[in-house]
Amino acid sequence: MMASYNQYRSRDLLKRLLKEYVLKHKRRLTMAAGCMLLVAGSTAANAWVMQPVLDEIFVKRDASMLTIIPLFIMLIAVIGAAGNYGQTIMMRYVGQRVIADMQLDLFAHLMRADLGTFHDQASGRLISRFTNDINMMRHSISNVMTGLAREMVTLVFLIALMFYQSWELSIIALIGFPLAVFPIARLGRRMRKISDGTQTELGEFTAQLDESFQGARVVKAYGREAFELERASSAIERLFRLYFKAARVQAVAAPIMEMLGGIAIALVIWYGGYKVMNGVTTPGAFFSFITAMLMVYRPIKSMASLNTNLQEGLAAANRFFQVMDVEESIKDAPDAQPLEIDKGQILFESVKFRYGQDSGGVEHITLNVPAGAKVALVGASGSGKSTIMNLILRFYDVEDGAISIDGQDIRNVTLASLRSSIALVSQDVVLFEGSVRANIAYGKFDATEDDIIRAATQADAHEFISQLPTGYETLIGPHGVKLSGGQRQRLSIARAMLKNAPILLLDEATSALDSQSERSVQRALDILMQQRTTIMIAHRLSTIAHADIIYVIEQGKIIESGTHSSLMERAGRYRDLHTMQFSETISEA
Question: Which domain holds residue 378?
Answer without folding.
Answer: 336-421+503-512+532-589
